[in-house]
């Protein structure tokens, strides 16, 4: 009888545990392999006009499908694009582009996406230039967690005199 009672209590505790926190993780955005003109960016926080900043952006929905990615860039100061190796049609069902804002709707079933991007400095800016990323998934997490928002900031300086 004691073993049966212990089994029932253990079963009740296991069933009452909430797995919601693990299954409802918000999407994540990570930046990897950041280079300027093909060289590591160690210790650098900016680029010069005509320099090319390349990086890999990893998008993770965990248990949920990714639904939308919005990228806002300051088009007056930088030229933003996907690396030519990236086939956006493999990942995105549609794309809406307006001045400085690119909105991408993911195809169904995509939970993870890795995007190589490049940014070319076109004009000096006194303050930092920001690339704003906003990633949304089917997670029910709300507030700052879904959509997940993150900024990647750097300076654009004038080309050095030779």
Shape: elongated
The radius of gyration over CA amounts to: 21 Å
Query: For the residues shown, what is the average pLDDT?
Result: 83
- Summed up, the domain count is 1
CATH architecture grouping = Sandwich
Helix content: 10-25%
What percentage of amino acids are in beta strands?
Answer: over 45%
Topology as a string of helices (H) and strands (E): HHEEEEEEEEEEE
- SS elements, strand count: 11
Could you list the spans in which at least 5 consecutive residues all have pLDDT below 50? 3-9, 11-22
Describe the largest sheet. Answer: 6 strands, mixed
Q: How far is it from the N-terminal to the C-terminal residue, by CA?
A: 88 Å
Helix-strand makeup class: mainly beta
CATH C-level name: Mainly Beta
CATH topology: Immunoglobulin-like
- Spatial strand sequence of the major β-sheet: 3-11-10-5-8-7
- Count of alpha and pi helical runs: 2
Please outline what is shown here.
Helices cover 12% and strands 50% of the residues.
Which key phrases capture this entry?
162 residues; mainly beta; five-stranded antiparallel beta sheet; 11 strands; disordered N terminus
Write the layout of secondary structure elements.
Blueprint: H1 2-16, H2 20-23, E1 28-36, E2 39-40, E3 46-48, E4 52-60, E5 66-72, E6 78-82, E7 92-98, E8 101-106, E9 112-121, E10 125-137, E11 148-157
Parallel strand pairs: 3-11
Antiparallel strand pairs: 1-2, 1-4, 4-9, 5-8, 5-10, 6-9, 7-8, 10-11
């Amino acid at each position: 009888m004691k073993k049966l009672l212990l089994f029932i209590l253990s079963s009740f505790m296991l069933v009452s545990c909430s797995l919601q926190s693990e299954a409802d993780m918000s999407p994540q955005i990570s930046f990897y392999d950041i280079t300027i003109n093909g060289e590591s960016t160690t210790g650098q926080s900016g680029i010069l006009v005509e320099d090319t900043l390349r990086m890999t952006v990893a998008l993770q929905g965990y248990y949920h499908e990714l639904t939308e990615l919005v990228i806002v860039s300051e088009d007056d100061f930088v030229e933003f694009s996907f690396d030519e190796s990236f086939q956006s049609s493999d990942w995105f069902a549609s794309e809406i582009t307006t001045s400085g804002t690119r909105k991408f709707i993911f195809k169904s079933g995509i939970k993870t996406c890795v995007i190589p991007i490049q940014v070319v400095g076109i004009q000096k800016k006194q303050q930092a230039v920001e690339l704003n990323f906003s990633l949304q998934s089917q997670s029910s997490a709300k507030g700052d967690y879904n959509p997940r928002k993150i900024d990647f900031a750097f300076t654009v300086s004038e080309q050095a005199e030779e």
